[in-house]
Write a structure and sequence with these properties.
homodimer; 694 residues; Jelly Rolls; Glycosyltransferase; 5 domains; eight-stranded antiparallel β-sheet; globular; disordered N terminus; 6hp_glycosidase-like_sf (chains A, B); Alpha-rhamnosidase (chains A, B); 6-hairpin_glycosidase_sf (chains A, B); Rhamnosid-like_N_bacteroidetes (chains A, B)
Chain lengths: 694, 694
């Protein structure tokens, strides 16, 4: 079977163009109250004109069949005036080179060639006629009829849990946040049908203000129905749907087609606190809903691919589905093509997150091939970023740029310290990539730039008295404004000394005088940093109050923003719209990451989890058990106040834990590291049982 | 009427994208024996995601209608969550800003807005979301139903002049080279029909080797016919068509739809030599056939837009149709978008011709707006070219580049002198553009670079003994190879001293030892240079023998290449194909330019023909009369051995002529310039009658 798979033909294309074409389509899917709202950045496009090549040697002639998305022509050995477009030809024996040009100005040009020994796959090369023969791109399209342009997510039927009458119109409740296509079964009568969707019941019951809606004519709908079912053309995010039909229009019932990526739930978590378990489960669901063609920001409103949002979704994904397809698609789509006139999503920080995300991808997967595929575009993106350093060497937003940092009352003029930290980390990532690629000179340059920037940032932004990095520096003067953001990132990336770390925790992170963080987006980083400093107990309580707070308000998935001080329906407003807030936002799913990384405590110590660390921490829980995927395999941890069990399937781990008395382990040597810290080396395929004292 | 036109709404789009989208389509139209043969360079694409804006002030509300190619949404005053896609809305009175986003990933997004006072036109701005608010592009699409994506050239029916039986199959002869869609009237029966096209009769009668062919099934064709006529989907270039049908398939007759740009024939030429008159007429027809969506190289084979070919077509066009639409479309399409990885058409010299063509455009039209629209892309193309200078500062081809110069036995390694001359001229053009734009610093840089390059080229390529510029320089050593090419361009652009010019004419251009030029492409430049040196009599004879030679062989349009030494059907071969040669090639139409510029003698002396020179020269003819367009107007010259008549409609001209006795003119003062040369200032709207002695 393995050898057959190896010889299996796949559709091939210009690398990256599948993602870029799909991204172009998806970025135009957003609607605002039924009206198109395409992304407000430049959308890159697939190359319409490409050419494949493949050199072969055959002992005897062989028949191949050829399929293309687009207009193709095939010729041999450079004889480009003598081409064929027949779907089946016989290749002559001997050494020859096949060339196939494919043109498609609607969908991405793609090719599928199948013969006994000659099959289209990534050993074919492709050019966009820019002196760029590259290994062809491919994915899982391995049959002629399984065409890349027809790629769709999976769907499965769902039924409403209740249908209530509201002012004479049915209000459907699907029980929890969902995404997909509403379906009408056995429509009859003539007239208009209007559907008002709501992530909250209030939204669905507000026809004049709900963010998504749809409408159709029953007569037209019947023409379009299949097997008595009319499915709305565009999917929507909702829990509730309120349906207003003209008198005389009736139907048997309404259901929906849930649309999703069939990911595997490869992580698990179960602990002594049922509420935390629910938070974990709801986080997984929130992330899953946003794990689609790409990692989206939120499923109701933008449905766009935002680099800063994706940065977090990637990390959550490593601690849950470990779905690398959607990760790679997202990274490729975000970067797009050259030239760059604007930053990713128009936001300077979002360009920088892309480098860090790519580095994380390498750390969690060890997949150097993907780094190599994206290296050239990483280099040009970094050139673009470095070009906007000011005289002091700090990166600044240009007038046309958005320096975001966070939804908060921030003044991001001049050189913002957060951007310097992100750029330093990005330069380190580029240094690592260059090193992997084998470009020592580039690696050394990036390394030097990173070191210089870190040093300068610490020198000019650090305020000894206030114990942290100040927010920004304008015209050579650092302003006396203290925010948490740069401090969090500097801690995360290990840019602070022990003294600085402790000062940041005490004087910044836990200081009520410093403006509080309100978005789950930055809470993600904030709470990670607190865990990094051993504040697990505090973070657990924060999770229970913040994410638990949303649940108490009836959330079935986590929100874009949460302010406990708001009353009732005020929670749903944002961007000047009463229901503008997304109630299913990827960045709301942070507990997946916090729990997997800091409670179960699994982190890669070398790329692809060849080695890893296991530092379980109950953080105030009585007991917990759970699993974290580490590439193909997984690590399972079970812990209570007196025992720890660890088991892994791959690589080699280093288990670290605290115990107030000397722990015992019949399965391995326990090494005392001082300060009540103990270590055990964990080999794959063995169960480790430790008795300790919390 | 004028004010109504001014207020007429037009379709608008992102500037340049109409041309770029059309170019993408046309570049994939070539077929080789029925099989697609798309251009082998990267094809740029239109932006799919754009946004228009327009600020207005209205005293009272106004209803507008909105049409879009693509999905649009309109909102006012930045309220982007509250959009409409209705085709008719009422704009509120007062000061407001309209924004309209349009997304279209198939055809170019375009917008049409019509109200009483608010109309879409070039006063609207558009962005591709790259910090690039630009005046919207537009052309002549001024009705809602007249959509840019539906743009087609004009068509008109043509009938064959004869139908002969050849081996039992009808052979149609349309009398001369033509281009368009073959049509079958009243088809009946079932079976296949194969059509073999030929620019020559031999080609049409060679089903196995003819370059273009077509085929259809009669049954399917009948389904597609309109009013009893089935029209082939793809147009072809041909004079002959040989039709093989299965027994039982019959038709009433076959005609064609000639497809063309309805240009005005604004020039004329009539002289004492009927053969030269015929050459002029056939040149006009050859150019017209190649004047299409863009200036093509040839209509049978490539049907691509080649910059070096277009450079000459532009010049011919200024002396005939003066069609600026096709000129602008061609210049925009050729340049495409950034980034540049390869040269225009992959050819280094073809990038350089683009600058020179753009300069010529300015010189002949005075249209600064177009220069400004293209300036940024000119700057980046020049950067790209300058980046590949060698250590000595000479431009060289990279391994992936094609250095063409000419179809000839040339070795174009190292620094080729022709490229240096073209680069110097391009730098001068950039200097002029920068100066117009008002960027004095850039103008001075380009000017300095041009001067340095010219000086270095003359110093290192000029061979005093051989009296010309040598062909190339490899690894710091100028090779002892003398060709005409660089010398021609250096003369044309005025880079030679009087002594050098005379040496080049004598020792290079008229020296039979120097390899002869065989393509009309370089004959164009060669003969122009000889005219520049007063060799009109020689050039007239060359036209008669070279272009006349093609006519003697039965040409009805002029060819890609002509070698009088070949026998019979060998004339039709090229590129390893027996009928590979194009028999209707734009660069074959050079006599238009030679006659208009050097015999009728009209050239602009300042941009847009505000002033011009008239230097008529009979060049051995007994008499001649003719007209040359000068922008909106024209200059008419009539001359024989003893009289000259000149009349112009615009601007101010300087008539220069030679006379062996003192000429007389009752209409103006005649100024003697010495050496039997006389000048008269010609004002618009007046007839000048001169008596002189040839």
């Amino acid at each position: 079977m393995a050898s057959q798979d190896k010889n299996k033909a796949t559709w091939i294309w210009y690398p990256g163009d599948f993602e870029i074409r799909l991204h172009e389509k998806m970025s135009a899917k957003r609607t605002a109250r039924g009206v198109a709202y395409p992304a407000y950045w430049q959308l890159d496009r697939h190359y319409s004109n490409i050419k494949f090549r493949y050199a072969y040697e055959l002992e005897q002639e062989e028949e191949i069949t050829i399929e293309a998305e687009g207009v193709f022509s095939l010729y041999l050995d450079g004889k480009d005036n003598y081409r064929t477009n027949r779907s089946s030809i016989t290749l002559p024996a001997g050494r020859h080179e096949i060339m196939v040009s494919v043109f498609n100005d609607t969908e991405m040009p793609a090719l599928y060639v199948a013969g006994h020994s000659i099959q289209s796959d990534s050993s074919w090369e492709v050019t966009s006629y820019q002196n760029d023969w590259l290994p062809a791109g491919f994915w899982k399209f391995d049959a002629p009829e399984n065409r890349p342009s027809a790629f769709r997510l999976a769907v499965t039927p769902q039924e409403p849990v209740s249908v209530m009458d509201q002012e004479g119109h049915p209000l459907l409740d699907f029980g929890k946040e969902t995404f997909g296509y509403l379906r009408f079964h056995n429509l009859s009568g003539n007239g208009s049908v209007n559907v008002y969707f709501g992530e909250s019941i209030t939204e669905a019951l507000s026809p004049d203000e709900c963010v998504t809606l749809d409408a159709f004519e029953a007569e037209e709908a019947r023409r379009l129905q299949e097997d008595g079912v009319f499915t709305l053309e565009e999917p929507k995010a909702f829990r509730y749907a309120w349906i207003h039909a003209d008198p005389g229009v009736t139907w048997e019932h309404v259901s929906m087609l849930y649309e999703y990526v069939p990911v595997q739930y490869r992580s698990s978590f179960d602990c002594s606190d049922p509420k935390l378990n629910d938070i974990y489960t709801m986080s997984l669901y929130t992330l899953h809903l946003n794990t689609r063609e790409f990692f989206l920001d939120g499923i109701k409103r933008d449905r766009w691919v935002w680099s800063g949002d994706a940065y977090q979704a990637f990390l959550m994904n490593y601690y849950s589905f470990f779905d690398l397809d959607v990760t790679r698609r997202t990274l490729v789509a975000l970067r797009g093509k050259d030239p760059l006139a604007m930053h990713l999503n128009t936001i300077v920080d979002y360009s920088l997150y892309w480098f860090i995300s790519l580095y994380d991808y390498y750390l969690y997967t060890g997949d150097f091939t993907f780094i190599r595929q994206n290296y050239d575009r990483a280099v040009t993106l970094m050139e673009f970023c470095l070009n906007q350093r000011n005289e002091e060497g700090f990166i600044e937003g240009r007038p046309q740029d958005w320096v975001f940092v966070d939804w908060a009352d921030l003044t991001n003029t001049g050189a913002v310290s957060t951007l310097q930290i992100l750029l330093a980390r990005s330069l380190e990532a580029m240094g690592a990539f260059s090193d992997l690629i084998g470009d020592k000179k580039a690696a050394s340059t990036y390394g030097r730039l990173a070191a210089e920037l870190k040093e300068k940032t610490m020198a000019l932004f650090w305020d000894n008295e206030r114990g942290g990095l100040l927010h920004h520096r304008v015209d050579g003067e650092t302003k006396p404004i203290l925010t948490k953001h740069a401090n969090m990132f500097a801690m995360t990336y290990g840019y602070l000394s022990e003294v600085q770390r402790s000062s940041v925790i005490r004087q910044v992170m836990l200081n009520p005088e410093v403006p509080q963080i309100r978005t789950p987006y930055m809470r993600f980083h904030e709470l990670a940093v607190l865990c990094d400093s051993g504040e697990h107990d505090f973070v657990r309580k924060e999770m229970l109050s913040y994410w638990g707070g949303m649940m108490d308000l009836g959330a079935t998935s986590f929100w874009e923003e949460y302010d406990p001080s708001l009353a009732d329906d005020e929670h749903y407003g944002m961007y000047g719209m009463p229901f503008g807030k997304s109630l299913c936002h990827a960045w709301g799913a942070g507990p997946i990451y916090l729990i997997g990384k800091y409670y179960l405590g699994i982190t890669p110590a070398s790329p692809g989890y060849e080695t890893y660390r296991i530092r379980p921490n109950l953080g105030g829980l009585q007991h917990m058990q759970g699993t974290v995927p580490i590439g193909e395999g997984q690590v399972t941890v079970k812990m209570d106040l007196s025992s720890i069990r660890v088991e892994s399937t791959n690589g080699s781990g280093l288990l670290t834990f605290a115990s107030s008395s000397l722990p015992e382990c019949p399965d391995a040597e326990v090494r005392a590291m001082g300060n009540n810290i103990y270590e055990i080396t964990v080999e794959a395929g063995k169960l480790y049982r430790i008795t300790y004292e919390a």
